[in-house]
User: What shape does this take?
Amino acid sequence: MIDKDYLLEHITEEQILDILQSFGASPYGAFKENEIWFRTICHDGDSHKLCYFRNSKRFYCYTNCGEMTIFNLIMRLKNCGFGEAINYVAKIMGVSNHYGFTNKLPVIKQELAAIDKYIAMRKPKNTKIKHLPSINNSILKYFENDVFYTGWIEEGISIETMKNFDIRWYESEKHIVIPHRNIKGELVGIRRRSLQEKDKNNKYMPETIEGVTYTHSLNLNFYGLDKHIEGIKKTKKAVIVESEKSVMLAHEYYGKDAFVIATCGFNISNWHRDVLLSLGVEEVMLAFDKDFLPIEFEDVEENDAEYKKYQRFVKRLYSLAYKFAPYCRTYILWDDMDLLEKKDSPFDKGQEVLEKIMKNKIEISTDRKEECC
Assistant: This one.
């Protein structure tokens, strides 16, 4: 069922008037500051004692029916149930999904109120930002630097771009080797993308060589920052993605002008936030993978297990956006046009699709108290 609270919150006065007009009721007399009067169509009366209160968006019939929402009124007019009344209003408003949104994210209410108020009071600390120590770059000689995964080439990442990011190959383990570098371009860790069936549930992991695992804290580094720092400083913008592959696709599309960096997970740390603010970033866009298809939940029950996972996903997405919202313009790239498939990154379907999604990005602001409370 579509979210009735969303419909009540967002229905406009013009839409209310259109609905009443469709049932043969035009406004009676002059509009007052908080009142619009109609004929009592709720019980097929002749008097004009049905009042719509503009501030509360509620009706009151002074002869028979008492207080009503727009849904209660339609139930009387159409002799239908509550669900049908909700769907009728949603159709008038152009809302067609389970969550009550067209080009915006589902509205998250009480759960985010505390986050909003807490984050809004915080300021980045004026302390020196720590960077990960470097490791010896010569370790990369262990891998082949002239073998490249054809699957990535087919997905749009050229050999030239893979060379630019120093992508290598570990033949005995069938691993794509992904060096991670800090803002200065120094090697700080090595990750791998395994092509082995046994690793299908943990494809991306730190690489291990002769018993040594070259791990590093993902919360203290951005993949691709050394390559795209010029684009970030030039535009004062940054797009945060999940995977190294999305960073390389961005480089394929825009070269050094790209301002895309990866956290390599569904997370944003305070370090990530503070680094970007220290670089003068004024606009941040979150472009995380599409882990769920909203259309799959249009008719599910509120207690559906997968629906609850989706709700947690959306709440998490909001909380990550609120890392930046008090300090700079913050957006989420949300595919409401079904241009992406499940698990896709906004970068996976090409530059044209990416730019369509970017044009419809959704702003997240701390000035959302009225939605959250």
Notes: The chain has 13 helices and 15 strands. The two ends are 22 Å apart (CA to CA). The longest strand covers residues 187-194. The CA atoms of residues 107 and 371 lie 7 Å apart.
